[in-house]
Amino acid sequence: MTTSPLFYQAGPEMPEVSHGRGVFLWDTNGKEYLDGCSGAISCNLGHGRQDIRDAMLAQLDRVAFTYRTQFENAPALALARQLVGMTDDALEKVFFVSSGSEAVESALKLARQYFVASGESQRRRFVSLRPSYHGSTLGALGMTGYQPLEAPFSDITMSSLKVSGPDFYRQRDADRETHVRRVLEETRNQIKAVGDETIIAVVLEPVGGASTGARLVDKAYLEGIRRLCDEIGCLLIFDEVLCGVGRTGTWFAYQQWGVTPDLLVTAKGLGAGYYPVGAMLCREEIVEAVMASGGFQHGHTYAGNPLACATGLAAIEAIRDEHLLDNVDARGRQLQRGLETLQCRYPWVGDVRGLGLLWGVELVMDPTEKTPFPAQANLFARVTALAKEEGLLIYPRRPLDGLAGDHFLVTPPFTISESEVVLLLERLERTFARLDREVVSPLLE
Ligand code: PMP
Q: Which co-factors does it depend on (predicted)?
C-alpha cells in the first residue's frame, strides 16, 4: 500500500514528529516548532517532562489497569480529592472518563437521571449556545452549535435548544450591560416558549474555546444564567474541557466570575497530554438522588484507571508545586500585550480576546464592519500553514456560520518562559507579515 492507512490527517505534506522538550517539538527533518497551542490545548506542561514520566512508570510498575467495579485505586481517590479541593468543595463528587466528549455525555445523562429519579421525567431538553463546541459523540454533538459539524447528523441527534450567548466583539447594543440584559432576555423567552418545566440543564463554556476562539462571557451574564436555572429549577453544566484545570489562571474558569455550576466537565489538560483522562464533577445531592433510584446507568471501560489517574495527579501536583497558575497569569498578560501590539499593526486583526493562557485572535476583512474574509480564502488554514513554516503551532478555526470570522487560538503550555513568549510573538509577527503580503493584500486589491 503506497498511501497512508490513516484517513484523518491533513495531507501528505504533514511532517512526522520526532520528539518534544518543554514548549518545543521537532520533526524528523530536524525542524523546530514552538508549540503555541499545547497540541490541542492539552499539553499544558509542555513535552518530555521527567516527573510525569516517572509518575507514570511508577504506576505501570504497580498496575496499569484495574476495573472500577473490582478495585478501589489510590490514584483515582487522590485525583478525585484534588479535583474536589480545586472547586473549594463546591462540587463534591467525581466521575472519571477518558475524553471531553465522554465527560459531556456523562453530565447529560446524570442530569437527566437526576430528574427521572426526582419524578420530573417531563424534563427532556437541554439548552446550549450557538456557536459552541461540546464534543463529537452524538449527545455532545447535539449540544454543539456549529452548523457544519451538526449538518450530517441533525436528523438523528438529540438536539438542544440553541440560544445566543454574549458577543462583546460584534454586539450592537448601547453597552455591555444592555447587551447582556438583552441576550439573557432572549434566552428567557426562548426557554419559556418551549416550557420551563421541560428543561434539564443549560450547558455552556465559561470561556469559549475551539468553537468561538476564546469568546468571553462576564459576571453579569453568568449570574443571570445561574438565576434563570434556579428560577426554572433546571441544572447548570459548565463545559470546562478546554478552559479548565488552570488554563485561565484559576483552577476552573468559572472561579474568575464566582458563579458555580451544578455539574462541571473537564478533560484535555487534565492528563497534560501524557495520558487521556477526563472528569465530571457534580454536587453530592444529584448523585445521592440518582444512587437512591438504582444507580447511574452509565460508564466507560477505561474510566478512572490507575495509570490515567496517576498521570492526572502528577500533572496537577506539578501545576501546584511549581506555582504555574502565577505563570499563566504573568505570561498571559505578556502574551496579551504582544497580541494587541500586532493588532495595532495589522488592521485585519479584528479582535484579540481571552484570559490567562487562552487567547483567541479573529481575522476580519473590514475592521469597522467586522466583515469576515470570504470562506473560500481559507484564511484560517493559510495563517496556520504560514505559522508552521515559521516554526510556530497555532490552533485554527474556520469562520462560524456568519457569527465569527476566521480565528485561531494561542494557548502555549503553562511552563512557557518570558523569553519563549517573546519568541512566540516574533514568529507570529513573521507569520502576519507574510500573511499580509502573500494573502491579505492580494485579496483586498
Ligand atoms: N468540550 C469542549 C469545550 C472542547 O473544547 C472539546 C474538545 N475540543 C470537547 C468538549 C470534546 O473533547 P474530546 O475531543 O476530548 O472528546
A: pyridoxal 5'-phosphate
- Going from the Cα of 76 to the center of ligand 1, the distance in angstroms, rounded, reads 22
Q: Do domains 17-48+323-444 and 53-321 have the same CATH topology?
A: no
CATH class name, domain 17-48+323-444? alpha beta
Which architecture, in CATH terms, is 53-321?
3-Layer(aba) Sandwich (3.40)
Q: Find the 101 Cα to ligand 1 centroid distance in Å.
A: 6
Q: Cα 276–277–283 angle (5° rounding)?
A: 160
pLDDT in tens, 269-293: 999 999 999 999 999 999 999 999 9
Give residue 411 CA to ligand 1 midpoint distance, Å. Answer: 15
Q: Name the residue of 242, 247, 275 whose CB sits within 8 Å of the most ligand 1 atoms, as the mutation to test its pocket.
A: 242
pLDDT in tens, 143-191: 999 988 999 999 999 999 999 999 999 999 999 999 999 999 999 999 9
Ligand 1 atom showing the smallest separation from residue 210 Cα: 5
Q: What is the ipTM of this complex?
A: 0.99
pTM: predicted TM-score of the whole model, two decimal places: 0.97
Which protein residue's CA is at the shortest distance from atom 12 of ligand 1?
100
Using CB distances shorter than 6 Å, the residues near ligand 1 are 99-101, 104, 133-136, 205, 209-210, 239, 241-242, 267
* Domain residue limits, the chain: 17-48+323-444, 53-321
CA-nearest residue for atom 8, ligand 1, is: 210
